[in-house]
């Protein structure tokens, strides 16, 4: 059965943390009883107080009888007041944020959430520093500094030496997989084998830390937007701008068709090439005339028709108008006076 719940136990003094995975919440009492017996035997210490919320997995007859027999005091936080159990709540938040980042960074699906929680807890016990003592939880709880040289990035590619199957003389000896954690019962790494699709513990592996996560390792619908659109049979709509920048084609012979607008015919006719060249020969004069027309439009909205008449000039007469500089100056003075009135 798949694990659905995670039980987080934190030492109040050293902040050392343990995580346990459960299929149902009714297994909590058995796990806590076995954990307390084990930790008291290994560390030669006694559990004095247990603080938890009011959940039925903690507050039940089985746990009450066990704590009464062991002489352990029970403390409960007030309902809807998680700040009274701040140590456990903060540790849960830290683990959740860590595994979200780990799974997203290496594009792994959420089915690896338990491995990510176990790895995050393992690393944080050896890396985080407790402020009052300026030491890691591992150093406070075990009494010596931990070794960190064997740690590797979660989710990186690995090659696994196949030591489980009976191989032939010319069969391949290595499999591909991902690094998902550290073993708590032996000096080995936990590896997900992509061939067998199982998590196994092995020490004979090679880490490919610099190999990037390629497309297709995770669920396509979650990490590839193109595959998602293909599964939905979505056809992208592209904007067609040919109507604005291409000439009209004649349906009969496939040749460009001349526009029906007479004004456009005059402007595009071969005889008007000289007028076009003269029109753009003096850009400064053209800008002055247009600027004068804009002043008339903004100064008096009531006389917009008059300003439009001043701007409408035949293309063939633009060259003559621009060649006469005195005409431009007179027009500017007339417009200025019209604006002042």
TrEMBL record:
Entries under InterPro entries matching the protein: Integrase_cat-core, Retrotran_Ty1/copia-like, RNaseH-like_sf, RNaseH_sf, SH3_retrovirus
Biased composition (Basic and acidic residues): 254-267, 275-286
Keyword Membrane: no
Residue ranges annotated for the Integrase catalytic domain, each copy included: 1-145
Keyword vocabulary terms for this entry: Coiled coil
Disordered as annotated region, ranges: 245-308
Pfam (any one): SH3_retrovirus
Superkingdom of this protein's organism: Eukaryota
KW Transport (keyword) present: no
Transmembrane segments: none
Protein name: Ribonuclease H-like domain-containing protein
Organism of provenance: Tanacetum coccineum
């Amino acid at each position: 059965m798949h694990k659905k719940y995670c039980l987080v136990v934190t030492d109040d003094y050293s902040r050392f943390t343990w995580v346990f995975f459960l299929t149902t919440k009714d297994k909590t009492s058995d796990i806590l009883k076995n954990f307390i017996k084990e930790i008291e035997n290994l560390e030669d210490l006694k559990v004095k107080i247990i603080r938890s919320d009011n959940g039925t997995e903690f507050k039940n007859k089985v746990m009450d009888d066990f704590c009464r027999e062991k002489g352990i005091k029970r403390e409960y936080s007030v309902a809807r007041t998680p700040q009274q159990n701040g140590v456990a709540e903060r540790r849960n938040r830290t683990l959740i944020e860590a595994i979200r980042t780990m799974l997203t960074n290496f594009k792994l699906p959420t089915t690896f959430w338990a491995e990510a929680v176990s790895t995050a807890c393992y690393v944080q016990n050896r890396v985080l520093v407790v402020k009052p003592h300026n030491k890691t939880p591992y150093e406070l709880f075990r009494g010596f500094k931990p070794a960190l040289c064997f740690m590797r990035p979660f989710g990186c590619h690995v090659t696994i030496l196949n030591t489980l199957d009976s191989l032939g003389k010319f069969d391949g000896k290595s499999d591909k997989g991902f690094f998902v954690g550290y073993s708590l019962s032996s000096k080995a790494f936990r590896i997900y084998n992509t061939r067998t699709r199982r998590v196994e513990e092995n020490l004979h592996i090679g880490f490919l830390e610099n190999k990037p996560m390629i497309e297709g390792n995770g669920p396509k619908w979650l990490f590839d937007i193109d595959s998602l659109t293909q599964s939905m049979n979505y056809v992208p709509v592209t904007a067609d701008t040919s109507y604005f920048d291409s000439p009209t084609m004649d349906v009969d012979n496939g040749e460009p068709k001349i526009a029906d607008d007479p004004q456009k015919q005059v402007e595009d006719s071969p005889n008007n090439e000289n007028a076009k060249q003269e029109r753009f020969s003096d850009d400064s004069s053209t800008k002055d005339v247009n600027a004068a027309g804009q002043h008339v439009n903004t100064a008096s909205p009531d006389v917009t028709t008059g300003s439009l008449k001043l701007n409408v000039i035949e293309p063939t007469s633009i060259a003559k108008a621009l060649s006469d500089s005195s005409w431009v100056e007179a027009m500017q003075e007339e417009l200025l006076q019209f604006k002042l009135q």
